[in-house]
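Incident log, support desk, overnight shift.

02:14 A customer reports that sequence design results differ from what the structure should imply. Their input is reproduced verbatim below. On-call engineer (initials T.W.) acknowledged and began investigating.
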């Protein structure tokens, strides 16, 4: 029996994977860095020059890599990092340190402690001030032959938590000899949002490198190269590859999105025992990607905003298509009680609703109440209720509330159905 099932598995699993090459998932990931990165050589050369000069001269330079997600910013820095490390081995620049860190979700102090760890410096108590942490870094820089260059990816999301904002860190960075940085951001308005005038004045954009979205033709050439590495010959239909490239080139210009689509399509092909990626599979993968992006966007909101969104969803499911802020306020406070959270006032709820309107998750409609009675704002969902349902089912904090309310909704619908039939 054992031999039979294992023989069967070997036959079936091998057949499913015939169209894939070994390490296919690596070639369809961000980890793979092509030896000849298409359309980004000039960006990489410019960045390498700036970083090498900053480390050699110990200048406190700030370099910006700006552009939408998936346009090669992180890849370019990682290539430059490897180049600089080789230059240090050849002793073409003084012994230096080059560090890559992600700023998203980190406090400024957490990021500063990560820098100290990379430099093998002693960490002060977590209760120590920003100044105490930074003074340890400054003393180390005085002894360093070369400089220290720190890349902060997602710098626009650094300091969303904690006491210190990103302005504080950049102020010290821009005024400390031997310490330079590359700041990677998807937000082209990042500098204009800095509040501290002293920091803003020191962050000139003369070393800003713009990464444009990839167009359809560029996407086709990039994805063709990846597919040759990941799939056997004929493993991807030409029509499917063209659709993938045109869709990404027109919609997002992000190579990352295209690679996500290919991985999703592979998953669908394996599940359905297909022997290649067809146009239909790629189209379905695009739909799945769009859903997943919206779900991730829901997760990026604070818990308070997610509760407001859940309130709008259930009000609609209970038949209230257009809701006032008061309708939403009462429902979200019901959920807050279930979670044993402190209740909030109506003005706070209105501010949270406005954030969802700005983010494109809610429609807002203004209607007059009548002569001299002002206007009323009405709200409705701007995205699919199915997508929201999936997000709340996956939500580790709110899924319990969602499931409880869903059970009550089912009971309410059952009662309504019985009433229509004249049953008690």
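02:41 Re-run completed on a clean worker. Output:
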């Amino acid at each position: 029996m054992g031999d039979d099932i294992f023989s069967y598995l070997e036959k079936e699993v091998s057949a499913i994977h015939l169209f894939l090459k070994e390490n296919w998932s690596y070639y369809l990931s961000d980890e793979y860095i092509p030896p000849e990165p298409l359309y980004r050589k000039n960006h990489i050369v410019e960045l390498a020059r700036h970083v090498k000069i900053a480390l050699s001269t110990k200048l406190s330079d700030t370099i910006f890599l700006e552009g939408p997600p998936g346009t090669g910013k992180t890849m370019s820095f990682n290539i430059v990092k490897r180049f600089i490390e080789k230059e240090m081995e050849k002793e073409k620049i003084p012994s230096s340190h080059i560090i890559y860190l992600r700023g998203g979700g980190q406090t400024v102090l957490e990021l500063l402690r990560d820098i100290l760890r990379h430099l093998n410096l002693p960490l002060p108590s977590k209760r120590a001030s920003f100044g105490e942490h930074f003074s340890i870094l400054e003393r180390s820089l005085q002894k360093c032959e070369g400089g220290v260059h720190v890349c902060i990816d997602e710098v626009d999301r650094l300091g969303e938590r904690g006491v210190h904002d990103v302005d504080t860190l950049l102020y010290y960075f821009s005024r400390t000899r031997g310490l330079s940085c590359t700041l990677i951001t998807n937000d082209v308005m990042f500098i204009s949002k800095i509040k501290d005038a002293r920091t803003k004045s020191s962050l000139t954009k003369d070393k800003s490198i713009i990464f444009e979205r990839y167009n359809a033709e560029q996407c086709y050439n990039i994805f063709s190269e990846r597919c040759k590495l990941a799939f056997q010959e004929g493993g991807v239909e030409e029509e499917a590859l063209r659709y993938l490239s045109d869709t990404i080139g027109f919609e997002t210009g992000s190579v990352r999105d295209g690679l996500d689509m290919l991985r999703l399509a592979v998953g669908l092909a394996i599940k359905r025992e297909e022997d290649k990626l067809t146009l239909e599979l790629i189209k379905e993968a695009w739909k799945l990607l769009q859903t997943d992006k919206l779900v991730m966007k829901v997760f990026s909101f604070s818990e308070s905003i997610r509760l407001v969104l859940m309130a709008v969803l259930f009000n609609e499911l209970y038949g209230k298509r257009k809701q006032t802020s008061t309708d939403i306020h009462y429902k979200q406070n019901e959920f807050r009680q279930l979670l044993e959270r402190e209740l909030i006032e109506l003005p706070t709820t209105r501010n949270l609703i406005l954030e969802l309107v700005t983010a494109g998750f809610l429609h807002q409609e203004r209607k007059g109440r009548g002569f001299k009675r002002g206007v009323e704002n009405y709200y409705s969902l701007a995205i699919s209720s199915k997508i929201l349902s999936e997000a709340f089912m996956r939500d580790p904090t709110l899924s319990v509330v969602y499931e409880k309310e869903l059970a009550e909704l089912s009971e309410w619908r059952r009662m309504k159905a019985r009433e229509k039939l004249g049953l008690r």
